[in-house]
Amino acid sequence: MSETQTAIPEPTTDCTDCNDNDIVESAARELYQAAALFVGDENEAIQLVEETVASVEMDPCSDGEAAREAASRDLIRRALARVAALQPARMHPSAATDLGGCVETDDLSAAGLTRQQLDDLLSGAGRTRMRQWLEGLGPAERSVFVLRAVMGRSAAESAQLLQQTTGDPWMETHVGGAYRAALCSLASSLVHSASH
User: Fold this and answer.
1) How many other CB atoms sit within 10 Å of the CB of residue 102?
2) Between 27 and 18, whose confidence is greater?
3) 9 DSSP 8-state letter
């Protein structure tokens, strides 16, 4: 090699077909939608996404799914921390009450909803109604609903994320109670809207 040549390492994967702008835009859009569901404020959601994108190394050509998962976990932690900082008493596990009776399981179908119907409510014609319903939830129930129903996190993982970000002793039973309360509220909201 001559002195004017530089050694440029070969990429570890073939990225010739990789349109990283589209991948990054798609990931940013998904992050924004999740952030907006957590915090309910567009400006806050944009700020959370900007902070996440700035702090997470995202190389869509090397491993797009790993980059997406890392960004998702970072955003969740940031969103939960933001909500907990704004309303610490209402994000405490003791605020995650299980109203009991209305919904018996931690399954989305207990609210009379399929995954496809939830997706339609989140991104389709029912989006405004869904956001209004989310605004009526307490921050613990809202956060747990977004974690479980939207982000697909398990009760154990949700408890761990809540405990790490709030510093409070969240357990699976708290997550289950908050999730069932949110599902009960959602089922009631859907029945009410169907009757009008």
Assistant:
1) 15
2) 27
3) P
